[in-house]
Amino acid sequence: MKKTEENSNLTSWDDHLDQKYGKPGTPSRDKYEEEFESFKIGVLIQESRKKQNLTQEQFGERAGTTKNYIYPELKTKPAI
Fold it and tell me: What domain range includes position 61?
């Protein structure tokens, strides 16, 4: 990202991720990407459940599993 006087303190999201987790393809970046994808899927599941006015238990029953199996990833967000 080019920096000018106006935005010299700004960092692009990609640069931030590279600095914190390494370049794409490195083990630490892969771990971050995997955890973030899991988190996003968890949020989508949660939004879907809420749109249907279902409890976690009801949603788990409809999915053929338990609420604990569906929601464990929502408890830990990836470090950003």
Answer: 27-75
